[in-house]
Specification:
The structure is a homodimer. Chain A is α+β, with helices and mostly antiparallel strands. Chain A has 8 helices and 16 strands. In chain A, α5 links the parallel β8 and β9 (185-190). In chain A, α6 (224-235) crosses α8. The longest helix of chain A is centred in the last third of the chain and has 17 residues, at 280-296. The first copy, chain A, is globular, with a radius of gyration of 19 Å. The two termini of chain A are 25 Å apart. The relative contact order of chain A is 0.14. At the A-B interface, β3, α1, β6, β7 and β8 of A face β3, α1, β6, β7 and β8 of B. β3 of chain A pairs antiparallel with β3 (16-18) of chain B, so a sheet runs across the interface.
């Protein structure tokens, strides 16, 4: 496996960074994960745009222009002989002196690596014998996940939430909490009591036919797939709305689903052990999401 | 310079970790910084205890017993021919697969490194010609810092704040904001509007002779020097109290000061450009803090 590290393709055992890289010391960096299908990274400009906005906010200089990075992604795929994968870009502030001050750290670290696509939904949830030719977990059929609510809260209206930073302990602990409860994903509330997002996904629900999701200002990640869900919902003639929601009200709504890069959309079948009311609109949105992904990566 | 990395002393250019180390990917780890004086790490058991509690909370196994780590610290100091330094321990969850789930990451990374002591206060703040024999920045005289209030908020009552995690972007941005304003440190408020701590320090103020500091439950780091300040204040016959405080009220109190490993205590001379009322008690506390440090590392 070859990895792009600061301008060179290196084997995995040589893809290393200094223990004084501020990414390692403090999570001082950003990342992006993209779905690659037929050798094409889906919505590359949108992902790069989020990375660049985050880098500007953190005052980290992107060490390569976006067009170079896109060429590198292509080279990575060719050299690793793969065309369907998850592509991860990691940008850290690079090595620096001890202490929180970012002053003096002038050599950012940029890593690009390929990772396997996630597994498709468990066989019980789909007809057997259909896995040949599948591209990724969500393409074939709508995954159905068990959700829990995480104990940890995110800060309400956090300006940092607009970016995919390398500070992910809350999400890691939330995911671990989900796994300990034999669930697939955890929802996180903010300090105001609003449910804002999943550990690695954006939250949606359907209320009287309206496709709802928390507003971006609420301190959530502006997911690329979140934007796609809103886009296809409107193209299906559905109304969309950005709304705050509390946990008790969320549990009473129907059609809770999540959006994320690797699966597109995922239906929530239960939340904190309570079976949820499904909505037929979710499957329609899921198909529309994958139709766009296929069209743009065909 | 030699660095301890997972059981071996290696030169700095070989002190590297995988780009898939979860410390680098997600800030999935913890650290400690200790003051070393005369070859002795100050309050080692307290620092190790905080690291162990954090590791238990994050479910990361400490790969070496504390007594081994103490021996390593001694060896690091001897091999690097130094006896006065800042010692940093970094513990990350180690390499793992992509994704927030910590499952499967079973080889934690442990790094120990030595760093220079911070500079003493600027010469204008102390008599010239006295720097010979000085040990660290705060030992000789009480530093006087300009403070600002950071824009970013910390989550109120955050359980993660009890540990020194590698998720430090809020602190990094707060420190950068201070430096942009030509200040030395930034105070952070939480989402409830309480001033909770400095980017790299704990907050104190003196109210009618009582030494006050925000309560641990407020989502602050339980600083080792914070505990020392409370301890020496009581031994000086002063009352201490843990109280919430808002920014407007803080600006009206006297004797604002900070506690931190490298300097012991630091007087705040201004906050957001407003000159602060000093308290003679701060210098007394500072002397008492350094008397304990000298006694325990003599």
């Amino acid at each position: 496996v070859l990895i792009f590290l600061n301008g060179r393709l290196v084997p995995e055992d040589r893809a290393v960074v200094s223990v004084f890289d501020r990414g390692f010391l403090y999570g001082d960096g950003l990342f992006e994960t993209l779905l690659v299908r037929n050798g094409k990274p889906f919505r590359w400009p949108q992902h790069l745009d989020r990375l660049r906005r985050g880098a500007a906010f953190l005052n980290i200089k992107l060490p390569f222009p976006p067009r170079t990075l896109l060429a590198v992604a292509g080279r990575l795929l060719v050299r690793n002989k793969t065309s369907d994968a998850i592509l991860r870009l990691t940008l850290s502030r690079g090595p620096g002196v001890r202490g929180y001050s970012p002053a003096g750290a002038k050599r950012p670290t940029l890593v690009m690596s390929l990772h396997p696509l996630p597994l498709p939904p468990a066989p019980t949830a789909r007809p057997r014998g259909k896995s040949a030719g599948r591209k990724t977990g969500g393409e074939e059929s709508l995954p159905r996940w068990k959700l829990i609510t995480a104990t940890l809260r995110l800060p309400a209206n956090d300006p940092l939430a607009r970016f995919k930073t390398n500070n992910k302990l809350a999400q890691i602990l939330a995911r671990a909490e989900a796994e300990a409860a034999r669930a697939d994903e955890a929802l996180l509330r903010d300090t105001d009591g609003h449910v804002v997002e999943g550990a690695g996904s954006n939250l949606f629900w359907i209320e009287r036919g309206v496709v709802c999701t928390p507003p971006l200002g609420a301190g959530i990640l502006p997911g690329i797939t979140r934007a796609l869900v809103l886009e296809v919902s409107r193209s299906l003639g559905l109304k969309t709305a950005e709304r705050h929601i509390t946990l008790p009200r969320l549990k009473k709504t129907g059609g809770i689903f999540l959006s994320l890069t690797s699966y597109g959309t995922v239906l929530a079948r239960s939340l904190d052990g309570q079976t949820l009311q499904p909505s037929p609109l979710v499957a329609a949105i899921h198909r529309a999401v994958w139709a766009v992904i296929r069209a743009e990566t065909g």
